[in-house]
Design a protein that fits this description.
It comes from Thalictrum thalictroides (Rue-anemone). With 103 residues, the protein is of the alpha+beta class. Helix content is 31%, strand content 12%. It has a domain of 66 residues. The chain has a three-stranded antiparallel sheet, covered by helices on one side.
């Protein structure tokens, strides 16, 4: 049999953490002893994204990439693309008009 070159990673963040205290919504990372508040913070922890939680140093690279891609794809879906605007002058101006003096 050929050895697998990549390991299949679960897309569900619930598979990468254990609910420790449901009343306080505390979740423990499966790769380190860190406890965070909720699975949303666990995504930031595993993706090593800046935020309110300390990044996980023991997370596998493929899990880190998956969590980062999930966060950025969510933001792309939620935020509309930036619009570009073209400024069109109401009437053309000439140099003579700018320096016209009335005595």
């Amino acid at each position: 049999m050929a050895a697998a070159t990549s390991v299949e990673v679960s897309n569900d963040v619930h598979d990468h953490g254990t609910l420790v205290n449901a009343a306080r919504n505390r979740v423990q990372c499966r790769y380190c002893p860190k406890e965070v508040t909720g699975f949303s913070h666990l995504k930031y922890h595993l993706g090593q994204l800046s935020g309110d939680v300390k990044p996980c140093e023991d997370v596998p690279e493929n899990v880190k990439i998956l969590m980062r891609s999930r966060q950025f794809s969510w933001k792309e879906d939620k935020c509309p693309p930036q619009r570009s605007y073209t400024v069109i002058p109401l009437r053309p101006t000439t140099v003579e008009e700018k320096f016209e003096f009335v005595l």
